[in-house]
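Troubleshooting: if your tokenizer reports a length mismatch, compare your output against this known-good record of 464 residues.
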Amino acid sequence: MATPPITEEREVDALIVGGGPGGMSAAITAAQVWPGRRILLIRPEEEPVVPCGIPYIFGTLRGVEHDLLSSAPFRTLGGGILCDRVTEVDLDKRNAHTESGVRVQWDRLVLATGTVPHLPPIPGIHRPGVFAIRKDYDHLEHLFEELIPGVKRLAVVGGGFIGVEFADEVRKGDVEVTVIEQLPHIMLRNFDEEVSVRIEQELRARGITVHTGVGVTALEGDGEDGRVRAVRLANGELIPAEAVLVAIGDRRNTLLGEALGFTMARGGGIWVDAFQRTREDPHVFAVGDCAFKQDFLLRRSVPSLLASTAAAEGRTAGMNLFGLRNERYNAGTIAIYASQVGDLAFGCAGMTASAARTEGLTVVVGRVVVPDHHPPTMPGTRMMTCLLVFSRSGLLLGGQVLGGPTTAEVLNAIGIAIQARLSVHELVSFQFGSHPRLTAPAHPIALCALDAMHQLRGDSRDAA
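Known-good structure output:
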């Protein structure tokens, strides 16, 4: 692409390319930690959306305008935002050119270019009515105002978080929804089978059809390129649908990093060190989905494309943008997912038992089912299922939770415990605040740890 003529010159201390959770987090943190620095964020969107909130536009929120990522905190700190696209970066001259002809001279650069939807080579993938989720206001507005209102039957290809959440939200509009997942159960990449089956049961109870263990061979419709009318499964079954959401994941948008010659990690993403710096240039950082992720426990590449992970990386980059004066660094990614279908909340942190065993680890799983309030007659009480995965030595590897509104806080506590490398022996004496309307009578983490410790002691006696 030819460089457009220069229409404006700017000089900044830090240029951030991309305004999603990673880019915005880096911008806000840098403005807080390094006051007085000139920080400019360039993004293509006038009104960026909250990525995790996208499915809820179509049910709970009822409109794209209710799912916007606020720029106010960054602007209040003196940061600047330019709605444009960076088309070229010169590392030697330390400048960047935009689509509209702005040339920005920078001292530090942060790449936060996110992802783009992944569309598999399924016959019929480009038919009208087939769509993926893009983090773009106009695209989402088209889906909400024009496409979805005319749909009576929706098929969702992919039983991960986005597919399940979108299915549940669209179902609130009395649309017939079918979820199709190639794995034996939905969400098996994140949960053990017991939890996946429970989520499937909740979806079916809400009137959503779930097909698992079967792939898609074609999206069929009118003529060769007419509107989609059905999904052909690998077993020959035909699922009627006026619209099809393809939700099998995104791929990292690393085009700018590749053009600059930065090292790409074997597992995907721009290679970065513990401070989010690129290998070739310590003045250039990468955060969020475009950056390489290293698993906290296994120390190898992990495809954890989460807004919360991006925000944590953005904070790390922002704190160390103009020098490693802060001790905060990225010790590795602990993927923490949470969601809700109907009244059932669920989430996971770290490794599942199945994944740990695949790695060759011997594990025990502490399991408990408790009411999330006390006494159980307290209004709003839900039963909570908590699973904690421990290694043979007692180290906490991961956890999964099913329950009600308190699920997310228990899940975040599990994430902290993993990061602190706590063991079963420390968690059995887990200290927590208690209140009848807010917490379980005994904390599920402590109860799970106690169950696991009994199992580990039994193993020791058997070994003796």
